[in-house]
From TrEMBL:
MF term (GO), any: metal ion binding
Gene3D superfamilies: Divalent-metal-dependent TIM barrel enzymes
Keyword terms, alphabetized: Isomerase, Manganese, Metal-binding
Protein name as catalogued: L-rhamnose isomerase / sugar isomerase
KW ATP-binding (keyword) present: no
Protein backbone atom coordinates (compact mmCIF):
# COMPACT_ATOMS: atom_id res chain seq x y z
CA UNK A 1 0.00 0.00 0.00
CA UNK A 2 1.23 3.47 -0.89
CA UNK A 3 -0.40 6.65 0.37
CA UNK A 4 -1.06 9.26 -2.28
CA UNK A 5 -0.38 12.94 -1.60
CA UNK A 6 -3.95 13.79 -2.52
CA UNK A 7 -5.32 11.52 0.22
CA UNK A 8 -3.24 13.37 2.80
CA UNK A 9 -4.23 16.77 1.39
CA UNK A 10 -7.91 15.83 1.64
CA UNK A 11 -7.61 14.97 5.31
CA UNK A 12 -5.56 18.12 5.94
CA UNK A 13 -8.29 20.31 4.47
CA UNK A 14 -10.61 19.58 7.36
CA UNK A 15 -8.22 20.95 9.98
CA UNK A 16 -6.27 23.45 7.92
CA UNK A 17 -8.06 26.52 9.24
CA UNK A 18 -7.53 25.53 12.85
CA UNK A 19 -3.88 24.82 12.14
CA UNK A 20 -3.42 28.17 10.40
CA UNK A 21 -4.89 30.03 13.38
CA UNK A 22 -2.67 28.21 15.84
CA UNK A 23 0.42 28.63 13.72
CA UNK A 24 -0.14 32.33 13.18
CA UNK A 25 -0.59 32.92 16.89
CA UNK A 26 2.62 31.07 17.80
CA UNK A 27 4.68 32.42 14.90
CA UNK A 28 3.73 36.00 15.82
CA UNK A 29 4.65 35.48 19.41
CA UNK A 30 7.99 33.90 18.53
CA UNK A 31 8.83 36.54 15.95
CA UNK A 32 8.12 39.28 18.49
CA UNK A 33 10.53 37.56 20.84
CA UNK A 34 13.29 37.59 18.23
CA UNK A 35 13.07 34.04 16.86
CA UNK A 36 13.57 33.26 13.19
CA UNK A 37 10.55 31.05 12.64
CA UNK A 38 11.50 30.03 9.10
CA UNK A 39 14.93 28.90 10.23
CA UNK A 40 13.32 26.76 12.93
CA UNK A 41 10.88 25.31 10.40
CA UNK A 42 13.59 24.31 7.98
CA UNK A 43 15.61 22.63 10.76
CA UNK A 44 12.51 20.65 11.72
CA UNK A 45 11.81 19.70 8.10
CA UNK A 46 15.34 18.49 7.53
CA UNK A 47 15.41 16.30 10.62
CA UNK A 48 15.02 12.65 9.59
CA UNK A 49 14.88 9.65 11.88
CA UNK A 50 15.46 6.06 10.81
CA UNK A 51 12.85 3.42 11.55
CA UNK A 52 14.26 0.03 12.55
CA UNK A 53 12.99 -2.81 10.44
CA UNK A 54 12.17 -4.79 13.60
CA UNK A 55 9.81 -2.19 15.07
CA UNK A 56 7.09 -2.59 12.44
CA UNK A 57 5.57 -5.73 13.89
CA UNK A 58 4.26 -6.45 17.36
CA UNK A 59 7.20 -7.30 19.60
CA UNK A 60 6.08 -9.21 22.63
CA UNK A 61 7.77 -10.18 25.85
CA UNK A 62 9.15 -13.45 27.14
CA UNK A 63 5.66 -14.11 28.49
CA UNK A 64 3.96 -14.00 25.16
CA UNK A 65 3.28 -12.13 22.03
CA UNK A 66 0.00 -10.71 20.86
CA UNK A 67 0.09 -10.34 17.11
CA UNK A 68 -1.06 -7.28 15.30
CA UNK A 69 -3.07 -7.79 12.16
CA UNK A 70 -1.60 -6.92 8.81
CA UNK A 71 2.01 -6.90 10.02
CA UNK A 72 4.66 -6.82 7.31
CA UNK A 73 6.35 -10.16 6.69
CA UNK A 74 8.77 -9.36 3.88
CA UNK A 75 11.43 -6.69 3.72
CA UNK A 76 9.49 -5.03 0.89
CA UNK A 77 6.42 -4.77 3.11
CA UNK A 78 8.49 -3.33 5.92
CA UNK A 79 9.82 -0.66 3.57
CA UNK A 80 6.26 0.04 2.45
CA UNK A 81 5.32 0.60 6.09
CA UNK A 82 8.17 3.06 6.52
CA UNK A 83 6.91 4.72 3.32
CA UNK A 84 3.51 5.20 4.96
CA UNK A 85 5.13 6.67 8.06
CA UNK A 86 7.25 8.98 5.95
CA UNK A 87 4.37 10.12 3.75
CA UNK A 88 2.39 11.11 6.84
CA UNK A 89 5.13 12.52 9.06
CA UNK A 90 7.80 13.57 6.54
CA UNK A 91 10.37 12.77 9.19
CA UNK A 92 10.93 9.01 8.73
CA UNK A 93 13.10 9.16 5.63
CA UNK A 94 15.29 6.17 6.48
CA UNK A 95 15.16 2.53 7.49
CA UNK A 96 17.69 0.65 9.60
CA UNK A 97 17.99 -3.01 8.67
CA UNK A 98 18.69 -5.91 10.93
CA UNK A 99 20.73 -8.76 9.55
CA UNK A 100 19.93 -11.65 9.19
CA UNK A 101 16.22 -10.88 9.72
CA UNK A 102 16.06 -8.58 6.70
CA UNK A 103 18.57 -9.73 4.13
CA UNK A 104 17.35 -8.43 0.74
CA UNK A 105 16.60 -11.10 -1.85
CA UNK A 106 16.67 -8.71 -4.78
CA UNK A 107 18.88 -5.70 -4.07
CA UNK A 108 17.76 -3.70 -7.09
CA UNK A 109 14.08 -4.14 -6.34
CA UNK A 110 14.56 -3.21 -2.69
CA UNK A 111 16.64 -0.14 -3.55
CA UNK A 112 14.15 1.02 -6.15
CA UNK A 113 11.22 0.59 -3.82
CA UNK A 114 12.99 2.55 -1.09
CA UNK A 115 13.96 5.42 -3.35
CA UNK A 116 10.45 5.60 -4.83
CA UNK A 117 9.28 6.23 -1.27
CA UNK A 118 12.10 8.70 -0.56
CA UNK A 119 13.67 6.35 1.98
CA UNK A 120 17.38 5.87 2.57
CA UNK A 121 19.19 2.99 4.23
CA UNK A 122 20.64 4.03 7.55
CA UNK A 123 22.94 1.95 9.78
CA UNK A 124 22.87 -1.82 9.32
CA UNK A 125 22.64 -3.85 12.52
CA UNK A 126 24.46 -7.10 13.09
CA UNK A 127 23.11 -9.89 15.25
CA UNK A 128 25.38 -12.10 17.29
CA UNK A 129 22.89 -12.48 20.13
CA UNK A 130 20.99 -15.40 18.59
CA UNK A 131 22.13 -18.65 17.05
CA UNK A 132 21.16 -18.78 13.41
CA UNK A 133 19.93 -21.95 11.77
CA UNK A 134 22.82 -24.22 10.75
CA UNK A 135 25.38 -22.02 12.49
CA UNK A 136 28.52 -23.95 13.36
CA UNK A 137 29.25 -22.16 16.62
CA UNK A 138 26.90 -21.03 19.39
CA UNK A 139 26.70 -17.59 21.00
CA UNK A 140 25.33 -18.99 24.23
CA UNK A 141 28.44 -17.86 26.10
CA UNK A 142 29.15 -14.75 24.09
CA UNK A 143 30.15 -13.71 20.60
CA UNK A 144 32.93 -11.15 20.11
CA UNK A 145 34.03 -11.74 23.71
CA UNK A 146 33.86 -15.53 23.67
CA UNK A 147 36.83 -17.48 25.02
CA UNK A 148 36.63 -19.69 21.92
CA UNK A 149 38.48 -18.31 18.94
CA UNK A 150 36.19 -20.17 16.54
CA UNK A 151 33.13 -18.44 17.98
CA UNK A 152 34.81 -15.04 17.83
CA UNK A 153 35.80 -15.63 14.22
CA UNK A 154 32.26 -16.57 13.25
CA UNK A 155 30.91 -13.41 14.91
CA UNK A 156 33.57 -11.24 13.26
CA UNK A 157 32.79 -12.73 9.86
CA UNK A 158 29.06 -12.06 10.38
CA UNK A 159 29.77 -8.37 11.02
CA UNK A 160 31.90 -8.21 7.88
CA UNK A 161 29.08 -9.81 5.89
CA UNK A 162 26.68 -7.21 7.29
CA UNK A 163 28.96 -4.41 6.11
CA UNK A 164 28.92 -5.91 2.62
CA UNK A 165 25.13 -6.03 2.60
CA UNK A 166 24.97 -2.43 3.80
CA UNK A 167 27.36 -1.31 1.07
CA UNK A 168 25.04 -2.66 -1.60
CA UNK A 169 22.20 -0.57 -0.20
CA UNK A 170 24.08 2.67 0.40
CA UNK A 171 24.23 2.42 4.20
CA UNK A 172 27.03 4.33 5.84
CA UNK A 173 27.26 2.73 9.27
CA UNK A 174 27.42 -0.57 11.10
CA UNK A 175 25.79 -0.75 14.52
CA UNK A 176 27.16 -3.35 16.88
CA UNK A 177 25.14 -4.27 19.92
CA UNK A 178 26.38 -7.23 21.93
CA UNK A 179 24.45 -9.33 24.39
CA UNK A 180 27.82 -10.58 25.66
CA UNK A 181 28.30 -10.71 29.39
CA UNK A 182 27.74 -13.05 32.28
CA UNK A 183 24.76 -14.07 34.33
CA UNK A 184 26.61 -15.00 37.52
CA UNK A 185 29.68 -13.74 39.39
CA UNK A 186 32.78 -15.66 38.48
CA UNK A 187 31.30 -16.94 35.23
CA UNK A 188 33.81 -15.07 33.14
CA UNK A 189 36.92 -13.00 33.52
CA UNK A 190 36.06 -9.31 33.01
CA UNK A 191 39.46 -8.47 31.54
CA UNK A 192 39.57 -11.40 29.14
CA UNK A 193 36.04 -10.70 27.92
CA UNK A 194 36.82 -7.02 27.37
CA UNK A 195 40.15 -7.72 25.69
CA UNK A 196 38.60 -10.28 23.34
CA UNK A 197 35.83 -7.86 22.45
CA UNK A 198 38.34 -5.13 21.75
CA UNK A 199 40.43 -7.38 19.52
CA UNK A 200 37.35 -8.60 17.65
CA UNK A 201 36.04 -5.07 17.10
CA UNK A 202 39.44 -3.99 15.84
CA UNK A 203 39.38 -6.81 13.31
CA UNK A 204 35.90 -5.79 12.11
CA UNK A 205 37.01 -2.17 12.01
CA UNK A 206 39.60 -3.01 9.37
CA UNK A 207 36.69 -3.73 7.02
CA UNK A 208 34.79 -0.51 7.76
CA UNK A 209 34.79 1.48 4.49
CA UNK A 210 36.43 4.91 4.46
CA UNK A 211 33.17 6.86 4.48
CA UNK A 212 31.48 4.64 7.08
CA UNK A 213 31.10 4.71 10.84
CA UNK A 214 31.16 1.88 13.32
CA UNK A 215 28.65 2.56 16.10
CA UNK A 216 29.21 0.76 19.39
CA UNK A 217 26.12 0.43 21.55
CA UNK A 218 26.32 -0.10 25.31
CA UNK A 219 23.85 -1.58 27.74
CA UNK A 220 24.20 -2.28 31.48
CA UNK A 221 22.29 -5.55 31.67
CA UNK A 222 19.95 -7.94 29.82
CA UNK A 223 19.97 -10.60 28.55
CA UNK A 224 22.89 -11.16 30.88
CA UNK A 225 21.99 -10.09 34.39
CA UNK A 226 25.27 -9.95 36.26
CA UNK A 227 27.60 -8.20 33.83
CA UNK A 228 27.62 -6.88 30.29
CA UNK A 229 30.94 -6.55 28.48
CA UNK A 230 30.09 -3.14 26.99
CA UNK A 231 28.16 -1.96 30.00
CA UNK A 232 28.28 1.82 29.70
CA UNK A 233 29.42 4.82 27.65
CA UNK A 234 32.88 4.60 29.19
CA UNK A 235 33.41 1.05 27.94
CA UNK A 236 32.00 1.97 24.55
CA UNK A 237 34.20 5.06 24.29
CA UNK A 238 37.31 3.10 25.26
CA UNK A 239 36.57 0.57 22.51
CA UNK A 240 35.80 3.28 19.96
CA UNK A 241 39.06 5.03 20.80
CA UNK A 242 40.98 1.77 20.43
CA UNK A 243 39.40 1.09 17.04
CA UNK A 244 39.98 4.49 15.48
CA UNK A 245 38.46 7.65 14.02
CA UNK A 246 35.53 5.96 12.34
CA UNK A 247 34.31 4.29 15.53
CA UNK A 248 31.81 6.03 17.79
CA UNK A 249 29.59 5.52 20.78
CA UNK A 250 25.89 4.95 20.24
CA UNK A 251 23.50 6.05 22.97
CA UNK A 252 20.27 4.10 23.41
CA UNK A 253 18.07 6.00 25.85
CA UNK A 254 16.85 2.83 27.56
CA UNK A 255 20.35 1.53 28.20
CA UNK A 256 21.06 3.35 31.45
CA UNK A 257 20.60 2.56 35.07
CA UNK A 258 17.74 4.53 36.65
CA UNK A 259 18.27 8.29 36.98
CA UNK A 260 21.46 8.40 34.90
CA UNK A 261 22.12 11.88 33.59
CA UNK A 262 21.89 10.98 29.90
CA UNK A 263 22.03 14.60 28.72
CA UNK A 264 25.42 14.97 30.36
CA UNK A 265 26.71 11.80 28.69
CA UNK A 266 25.49 13.12 25.33
CA UNK A 267 27.12 16.48 25.94
CA UNK A 268 30.56 15.16 26.86
CA UNK A 269 30.66 12.57 24.06
CA UNK A 270 29.80 15.34 21.64
CA UNK A 271 32.58 17.53 23.06
CA UNK A 272 34.99 14.66 22.45
CA UNK A 273 33.67 14.16 18.92
CA UNK A 274 32.65 10.59 19.70
CA UNK A 275 28.87 10.68 19.70
CA UNK A 276 27.90 8.64 16.67
CA UNK A 277 24.31 7.58 16.94
CA UNK A 278 21.12 7.52 18.89
CA UNK A 279 18.43 5.00 19.66
CA UNK A 280 15.30 6.81 20.82
CA UNK A 281 12.76 5.18 23.10
CA UNK A 282 11.51 5.76 26.63
CA UNK A 283 11.86 3.83 29.80
CA UNK A 284 10.43 3.64 33.28
CA UNK A 285 12.54 0.83 34.70
CA UNK A 286 15.05 -0.56 32.23
CA UNK A 287 15.31 -1.24 28.52
CA UNK A 288 11.53 -0.93 28.26
CA UNK A 289 11.57 0.25 24.63
CA UNK A 290 8.43 2.33 25.17
CA UNK A 291 7.13 5.10 22.92
CA UNK A 292 9.54 8.04 22.83
CA UNK A 293 8.44 10.80 25.20
CA UNK A 294 5.74 8.71 26.86
CA UNK A 295 7.39 8.58 30.30
CA UNK A 296 10.01 11.32 30.67
CA UNK A 297 9.41 14.06 28.11
CA UNK A 298 11.37 16.66 30.11
CA UNK A 299 14.45 14.44 30.14
CA UNK A 300 14.07 14.02 26.38
CA UNK A 301 13.97 17.79 26.00
CA UNK A 302 17.12 18.20 28.10
CA UNK A 303 18.86 15.62 25.91
CA UNK A 304 17.80 17.49 22.80
CA UNK A 305 19.00 20.72 24.32
CA UNK A 306 22.49 19.18 24.52
CA UNK A 307 22.18 17.77 21.00
CA UNK A 308 21.24 21.18 19.62
CA UNK A 309 24.11 22.76 21.53
CA UNK A 310 26.48 20.08 20.23
CA UNK A 311 25.32 20.47 16.62
CA UNK A 312 25.98 24.21 16.84
CA UNK A 313 29.22 24.15 18.83
CA UNK A 314 30.98 20.83 18.25
CA UNK A 315 32.18 20.63 14.64
CA UNK A 316 34.54 17.89 15.84
CA UNK A 317 31.50 15.64 16.17
CA UNK A 318 30.02 14.24 12.94
CA UNK A 319 26.35 14.21 11.95
CA UNK A 320 24.48 11.69 13.99
CA UNK A 321 22.59 8.56 12.98
CA UNK A 322 19.15 9.05 14.53
CA UNK A 323 17.04 5.98 15.01
CA UNK A 324 14.02 4.84 16.95
CA UNK A 325 14.58 1.60 18.84
CA UNK A 326 11.25 0.75 20.33
CA UNK A 327 9.06 -2.29 20.49
CA UNK A 328 5.31 -2.53 20.58
CA UNK A 329 3.36 -4.97 22.60
CA UNK A 330 -0.15 -3.59 22.62
CA UNK A 331 -0.32 -0.63 20.22
CA UNK A 332 -0.54 -0.61 16.45
CA UNK A 333 3.20 -0.37 15.67
CA UNK A 334 2.67 2.31 13.04
CA UNK A 335 0.61 4.47 15.39
CA UNK A 336 3.22 4.01 18.09
CA UNK A 337 5.99 5.04 15.71
CA UNK A 338 4.01 8.12 14.65
CA UNK A 339 3.73 9.08 18.33
CA UNK A 340 7.48 8.54 18.77
CA UNK A 341 8.33 10.66 15.73
CA UNK A 342 6.04 13.38 17.02
CA UNK A 343 7.69 13.33 20.44
CA UNK A 344 11.15 13.58 18.87
CA UNK A 345 10.12 16.55 16.75
CA UNK A 346 8.51 18.18 19.75
CA UNK A 347 11.63 17.84 21.90
CA UNK A 348 13.78 19.10 19.03
CA UNK A 349 11.53 22.12 18.41
CA UNK A 350 11.52 23.05 22.09
CA UNK A 351 15.29 22.74 22.24
CA UNK A 352 15.56 25.05 19.24
CA UNK A 353 13.66 27.64 21.29
CA UNK A 354 16.26 27.71 24.05
CA UNK A 355 17.90 31.12 23.87
CA UNK A 356 21.50 29.93 23.92
CA UNK A 357 23.00 33.40 24.25
CA UNK A 358 20.74 34.32 27.17
CA UNK A 359 21.46 30.97 28.81
CA UNK A 360 25.19 31.50 28.53
CA UNK A 361 24.90 34.99 30.00
CA UNK A 362 22.82 33.70 32.90
CA UNK A 363 25.35 30.89 33.47
CA UNK A 364 28.20 33.40 33.57
CA UNK A 365 26.22 35.48 36.08
CA UNK A 366 25.58 32.35 38.12
CA UNK A 367 21.92 33.27 37.94
CA UNK A 368 20.63 29.79 38.63
CA UNK A 369 16.99 30.83 38.67
CA UNK A 370 17.25 32.53 35.30
CA UNK A 371 18.98 29.50 33.78
CA UNK A 372 16.05 27.34 34.83
CA UNK A 373 13.53 29.92 33.62
CA UNK A 374 15.14 29.92 30.17
CA UNK A 375 15.10 26.13 29.84
CA UNK A 376 11.61 25.71 31.22
CA UNK A 377 10.28 28.66 29.23
CA UNK A 378 11.25 26.81 26.07
CA UNK A 379 9.93 23.51 27.40
CA UNK A 380 6.55 24.95 28.32
CA UNK A 381 5.93 26.32 24.83
CA UNK A 382 3.32 24.37 22.89
CA UNK A 383 5.35 23.85 19.72
CA UNK A 384 2.87 21.59 17.95
CA UNK A 385 1.83 24.23 15.38
CA UNK A 386 5.50 24.50 14.34
CA UNK A 387 5.79 20.77 13.80
CA UNK A 388 2.53 20.70 11.89
CA UNK A 389 3.76 23.49 9.66
CA UNK A 390 7.11 21.80 9.03
CA UNK A 391 5.26 18.66 7.95
CA UNK A 392 2.79 20.59 5.82
CA UNK A 393 5.60 22.37 4.01
CA UNK A 394 6.84 18.98 2.83
CA UNK A 395 3.43 17.61 1.92
CA UNK A 396 2.84 15.65 5.12
CA UNK A 397 -0.18 15.41 7.37
CA UNK A 398 -1.10 18.12 9.86
CA UNK A 399 -2.05 15.35 12.24
CA UNK A 400 -0.46 12.04 11.19
CA UNK A 401 -2.44 9.97 13.68
CA UNK A 402 -5.72 11.49 12.56
CA UNK A 403 -4.84 10.95 8.91
CA UNK A 404 -3.70 7.37 9.56
CA UNK A 405 -7.02 6.58 11.20
CA UNK A 406 -9.19 8.49 8.78
CA UNK A 407 -7.52 6.85 5.80
CA UNK A 408 -8.08 3.50 7.49
CA UNK A 409 -4.52 2.45 6.76
CA UNK A 410 -4.45 -0.60 9.03
CA UNK A 411 -7.54 -2.09 7.43
CA UNK A 412 -6.03 -1.68 3.98
CA UNK A 413 -2.91 -3.45 5.20
CA UNK A 414 -4.99 -6.27 6.63
CA UNK A 415 -6.85 -6.63 3.34
CA UNK A 416 -3.54 -6.75 1.48
CA UNK A 417 -1.58 -8.98 3.82
CA UNK A 418 -4.12 -10.93 5.77
CA UNK A 419 -4.78 -11.08 9.47
CA UNK A 420 -2.43 -13.64 10.84
CA UNK A 421 0.91 -12.28 9.81
CA UNK A 422 4.00 -12.38 11.96
CA UNK A 423 6.86 -9.99 11.39
CA UNK A 424 10.35 -11.25 11.99
CA UNK A 425 12.04 -9.44 14.79
CA UNK A 426 12.33 -9.06 18.51
C1 LIG B 1 19.16 -4.14 22.40
O1 LIG B 1 18.75 -4.00 23.56
C2 LIG B 1 19.56 -3.00 21.62
O2 LIG B 1 18.77 -1.88 21.97
C3 LIG B 1 19.68 -3.10 20.11
O3 LIG B 1 19.94 -1.83 19.62
C4 LIG B 1 18.51 -3.55 19.31
O4 LIG B 1 17.31 -3.52 19.98
C5 LIG B 1 18.82 -4.84 18.69
O5 LIG B 1 20.08 -4.79 18.11
C6 LIG B 1 17.83 -5.28 17.63
O6 LIG B 1 18.51 -5.79 16.63
ZN1 LIG C 1 19.22 -0.06 20.82
ZN1 LIG D 1 17.77 -2.03 23.83
Amino acid sequence: MKLQNQQILDVNKKILEEHNDNFEFLANKLTKNGYDVNAILSKLSEFQVAIPSWALGAGGTRFGRFGFYGEPTTLEQKIEDVGILHALTQTAGAVSLHIPWDVPQDYNAVSELASSLDIKFDAVNSNTFQDQKDAKESYKYGSLSNTSQAVREQAIQHNIDVIKIGEKLGSKALTVWLADGSSFPGQNNFQTAFQNTQDSLKTIYKDIPEDWKMLIEYKPYEPNFYSTVIQDWGASLMLANECGDKAYTLVDLGHHLPNSNIEQIVSILSLKGKLGGFHFNDSKYGDDDLTVGSIKPYALFLIFNELVYGMANNPQNPDLAWMIDASHNIKDPLEDLIQSLEAIQEAFARALLVDQAALKAAQLDNDVVKCQEILQGAYRTDVRPLIEKARLNRGGAISPIKAYRELDVRNYLIKERGRNTVATGL
